[in-house]
Design brief:
Elements lengths: L2 H44 L3 H33 L3 E2 L4 E2 L4 H4 L26 E4 L4 E5 L4 E9 L33 H4 L2 E4 L10 H6 L6 E4 L1 H20 L2 E10 L3 E3 L2 E3 L1 E5 L5 E5 L3 E10 L13 E8 L14 E2 L1 H8 L9 H8 L8
Antiparallel strand pairs: 1-2, 3-4, 4-5, 5-8, 6-7, 8-13, 9-10, 11-12, 13-14, 14-15
């Protein structure tokens, strides 16, 4: 065998080995590799890429924000629909919730609305509703004064019961709230009367009715010239309206901080508790009152129009006021009282009637 023939045979052998390896790889090894590759490919298709993952996260956040936004929007819509803000010439009424106004029967003090949306809710410490048979009030546990007291006055409320003079803490205050006592006014040091909001003389049908007006939640620190002159004379005028054949819906309360009593000017009266803590009972700078008077009768809501008798007064809590005139010098509009307090009085009246009577200044003639 020649060398040339040997080289040819060697070349054929090498080619045969290479071809065999190629065939083996193609039909035996490659499917296993392909299976691995396919598995990796499926994994990549199942799991998002980094950019896709970020996009999905962004979509999730956007969706959550959108959901939160919708929830907030829904909540806001609900709030707006249940508490519309009412514009006033002198300001804006902060409280205007029909939900809190509804459900009171005729001759109930809140028949025409709840001025501050007060509720008997422990979370509302500064606007806590207390309902008595003789009157309804919103109590403020920060000032230790009522925000307002509302009552209905008619001939049936007036009788022969004597003045009880039994000033006492209100036991109906929630457990843990400090109840102001008679002695807390410390008249000898500060010179302010325990001034009734709902008057004693407005509740003389029974001894019990009169006694209920002496609960300390119905009091504010009032300068003597206000309580014993201006305020008292206006109370007499209210009862005179009743004797003339009217029934009257009244709401009254304090405003501001700082008044001048018989012993000087004070913003508050400190009260030391048994625990050693000192609380501050606020001395108001004004006491205000608003009323609607209509002839005795039924269906009161339908009997009020633009000509209905309405009066509002705002009296400075100062000494010496009676020297320049009586309560008529402090006549104002209901709009003005709403503007300084944020309350919304007589909200359930028709809007045109409410706007008309609340913007008028009562013209007093002796």
């Amino acid at each position: 065998m020649t060398k040339k023939t040997k080289r040819l045979l060697l070349s054929i052998l090498c080619f045969t080995l290479i071809l065999g390896y190629a065939i083996w790889y193609t039909y035996y090894a490659k499917p296993e590799q392909k299976e691995k590759i396919d598995s990796l490919t499926q994994t990549e298709q199942t799991a998002p890429s980094k950019s896709e993952e970020n996009a999905q996260n962004t979509d999730t956040i956007d969706a959550q924000n959108d959901k939160s936004s919708k929830k907030s929007s829904k909540s806001g819509t609900k709030k707006t629909s249940s508490k519309s803000t009412k514009s006033k010439k002198s300001g804006k009424a902060e409280y205007s919730s029909k939900e809190c106004d509804m459900g009171y029967e005729e001759n109930n003090p809140l028949y025409f609305g709840n001025p501050s949306d007060a509720k008997t809710d422990l979370s509302l410490m500064n606007n806590y509703m207390m309902i008595k048979p003789q009157y309804t009030l919103s109590y403020n546990a920060s000032t230790f004064n009522p925000n307002w007291v509302a009552w209905h006055l008619c001939k049936d409320d007036l009788g022969d019961a004597d003045r009880s003079d039994d000033f006492r803490p209100d036991k109906d205050l929630p457990l843990g709230w400090y109840a102001i006592k008679k002695k807390d006014y410390q008249y000898k040091d500060y010179g302010f009367d325990r001034g009734h909001i709902c008057p004693s003389a407005d509740r003389t049908k029974t001894k019990e009715d009169n006694s209920m007006t002496f609960l300390m939640t119905n009091m504010v620190p009032q300068t003597p010239d206000n309580n014993r002159v201006i305020w008292m004379h206006f109370e007499n005028y209210e009862r005179e309206l009743v004797r003339q054949g009217y029934e009257v819906y009244l709401i009254a309360g304090p405003y501001g901080k700082g008044g001048t009593g018989a012993k000087g000017t004070f913003e508050s009266i400190p009260v030391e508790l048994k625990t050693g803590e000192t609380i501050e009972m606020v001395v108001p700078s004004y006491t205000w009152k608003v009323l609607i008077a209509i002839p005795d009768g039924d269906d009161d809501l339908s009997r009020i129009d633009e000509n209905t008798l309405c009066i509002a007064i705002n009296v400075p809590n100062l000494m010496g006021m009676g020297k320049t005139g009586d309560w008529e010098q402090y006549i104002t509009t209901i709009d003005e009282i709403e503007g300084i307090t944020g309350y919304d009085f007589f909200e359930l009246l028709p809007d045109d009637v409410e706007e008309s009577i609340e913007s008028k200044t009562y013209e007093y003639t002796k």
